[in-house]
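During the second year of the project, the team shifted from modelling isolated chains to modelling whole assemblies. The rationale, set out in the original proposal, was that interfaces cannot be judged from single-chain predictions alone. As a representative example for this report, we include one of the complexes processed in the last quarter. Its constituent sequences, exactly as entered into the pipeline, are reproduced here:
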Amino acid sequence: MPETPEQLYLRAAKALRMPAVQEWDTFPFDGEMRPRALQPPGEHEVRRSGEGGVDCKACAAPDSDFLWTTERWRLHSLPRPSGLPVILLLQPRAHYGEPGDLPDAMAAELGTLLARIERAVRSIDGVGRVHVCRWGDGSEHLHWWFMARPARFPQLIGSFAAIWDDVLPATPDSIWRDNLALVIRELNRA
Ligand SMILES: [Zn+2]
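Output from the structure prediction step:
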């Protein structure tokens, strides 16, 4: 039988473990660490922005806010450069929440687009891998992340790349703009 959040809390709150992060090459931080105390579960899930499409920024955004659009999908960058060479987000034009809520035809189209955009981002020189991620706990409007991870830095591999993005200094603006232009060129070639 699945565990309730309350059961999980009772079992885990006093039994948190400290992984050996100091031995992980990919862990971005040094120094003494301990787990933060686990807070008890809330009554409900935390509300996400744009729930039910109400006051949804993604729905309201004009096409001019996006780098690349199709009939059913729109692709945008972060508003300014961050530590990784480029980060892009793909979202459906219409308001869908979970991947499993998509109609089959759109889910199939999404698969093709994930591959196409990953390939385009990977075409940038100096990009070692593209992490394709979906969390969805912040805003409800479905969005997929494409995080370009720099090549040949063993420390930057894996899921901590998302944290390294805030640790590395921002990519210079001109390089970031060139990277975005390269991605668009590749997408339009496909
Ligand atoms: Zn929306």
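The two ends are 48 Å apart (CA to CA). The domain at 65-189 is CATH 3.30.428.10 (HIT family, subunit A).
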